[in-house]
């Protein structure tokens, strides 16, 4: 929130880190940002097709899954190319459609909660908490997505921090309520329903119709997530290409009729479709979480650097406590990342080396031209 009020540009976290540390780090960040979003979308698409396959078994087969991914990403790509207003209307509609059943589940669910199920009898190990948190973090990503259109926000000093705080606080409270009701209704058996736990909770509360309604709500929720990402994340590609951080000028092209970054949108949905077709939910979710954690780490360090480099006569949003929150964030992120396996760390290092080589090769080639 503080960094984005100082760097009110489209592009989100990449724009913040690029302003603090230059184009090379900005290039690495933009790749990680897009990688995180694409793998997140691919993971959600895999979870969505699993639900759809319960009603339409054809989509449970490999060919059906690929066809499903092509339809979903193709539709959202087309909607967002046609116009910003169309994409936003879809996002708002799907957001409301998924929130109403969840709020109903939480409010009615309290009447059948067995508080004996909520008693803590054993504690997980520190290692288990770390490995679980790395995967669970996937569910808390997204507050930064609004910053991808930061250059178009009115009064960013006020509205960006307010938007982030309202969103993350509301989501945190809703997640705690959902988890508490779910555990209070199902108890130890909750862990037996890994694919669609909330539908099972709804079945216990409302009967078979509750199972169907919550399953549909889960599908709408995932569809809404994909719609939101398809709207916001191509703008990161567009912003990075426009600023010269991503040396692919075509990504900065604007459609003559619809005035949207159609090339960036097309490239984004095509890559997301490919990842969804070749990966599974858990693997993709961990890759997405790790990528986003590196970006959050970069933003936290950027806040520290930007504190001493911005003009003092201008007013910006200031985090309470000075450097306390950025430093705590850095420590927490490092702890999260320490739970990656050696194989995952090796893959990340190879990936960074590869994209660094591409960056410097393009830079050298550009100088020769």
Topology record:
Layout: H1 2-6, H2 13-21, H3 23-55, H4 62-82, H5 84-109, H6 126-136, H7 156-186, H8 197-206, H9 208-232, H10 234-242, H11 262-278, H12 281-307, H13 324-337, H14 342-368
Helix pairs in contact: 2-3, 2-12, 3-9, 3-10, 3-11, 3-12, 3-14, 4-5, 4-9, 4-11, 5-7, 5-9, 7-8, 8-9, 10-11, 12-13
| Approximate shape | globular
Q: Spans of 5+ residues with little confidence (pLDDT < 50)? A: none
End-to-end C-alpha gap: 40 Å
Number of DSSP-assigned strands: 0
Structural class computed from helices and strand pairing: mainly alpha
The topology string of helices and strands comes to HHHHHHHHHHHHHH
Fraction of residues in β-strands: under 5%
Question: Which radius of gyration do the C-alpha atoms yield?
Answer: 21 Å
Give me the number of helical elements.
14
Largest sheet: none
- Give the overall average pLDDT: 83
Instruction: Bin the helical content.
Output: over 70%
Short description:
With 369 residues, the chain is mainly alpha-helical.
Structure, explained:
- There is one protein chain.
- Helix content is 72%, strand content 0%.
- The chain is built from 14 helices and no strands.
- The protein has helices at residues 2-6, 13-21, 23-55, 62-82, 84-109, 126-136, 156-186, 197-206, 208-232, 234-242, 262-278, 281-307, 324-337, 342-368.
- The radius of gyration is 21 Å and the shape is globular.
- It starts with a helix and ends with a helix.
């Amino acid at each position: 929130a503080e960094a984005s009020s100082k760097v009110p540009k489209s592009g989100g976290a990449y724009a913040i880190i690029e302003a603090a540390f230059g184009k090379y780090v900005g290039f690495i960040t933009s790749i990680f940002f897009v990688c995180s979003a694409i793998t997140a979308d691919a993971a959600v698409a895999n979870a969505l097709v699993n639900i759809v396959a319960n009603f339409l078994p054809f989509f449970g087969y490999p060919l059906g899954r690929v066809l499903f991914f092509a339809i979903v990403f193709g539709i959202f790509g087309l909607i967002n190319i046609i116009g910003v207003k169309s994409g936003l209307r879809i996002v708002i509609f799907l957001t409301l459609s998924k929130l109403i059943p969840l709020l109903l589940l939480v409010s009615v669910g309290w009447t059948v909660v067995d508080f004996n199920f909520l008693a803590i009898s054993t504690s997980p190990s520190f290692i288990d908490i770390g490995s679980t948190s790395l995967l669970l973090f996937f569910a808390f990503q997204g507050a930064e997505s609004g910053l991808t259109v930061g250059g178009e926000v009115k009064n960013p000093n006020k509205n960006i921090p307010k938007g982030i705080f309202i969103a993350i606080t509301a989501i945190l409270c809703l997640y705690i309520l959902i988890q508490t009701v779910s555990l209070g209704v199902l108890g130890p058996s909750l862990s037996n329903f890994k694919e669609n736990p909330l539908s099972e909770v709804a079945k216990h509360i409302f009967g078979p119709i509750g199972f169907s309604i919550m399953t549909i709500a889960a599908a709408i929720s995932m569809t809404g997530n994909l719609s939101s990402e398809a709207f916001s994340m191509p703008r990161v590609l567009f912003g990075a290409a426009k600023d010269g951080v991503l040396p692919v000028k075509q990504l900065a092209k604007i459609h003559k009729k619809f005035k949207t970054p159609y090339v960036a949108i097309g490239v984004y949905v095509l890559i997301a479709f490919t990842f969804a077709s070749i990966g599974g939910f858990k693997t993709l979710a961990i890759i997405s979480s790790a990528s986003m954690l590196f970006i959050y780490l970069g933003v936290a360090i950027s806040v520290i650097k930007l504190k001493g480099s911005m003009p003092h006569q201008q007013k910006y949003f200031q985090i309470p406590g000075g450097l306390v929150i950025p430093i705590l964030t850095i420590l927490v992120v490092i702890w999260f990342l320490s739970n990656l396996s050696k194989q995952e760390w090796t893959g990340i290092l190879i990936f960074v080396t590869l994209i660094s080589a591409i960056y410097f090769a393009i830079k050298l080639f550009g100088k020769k031209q």
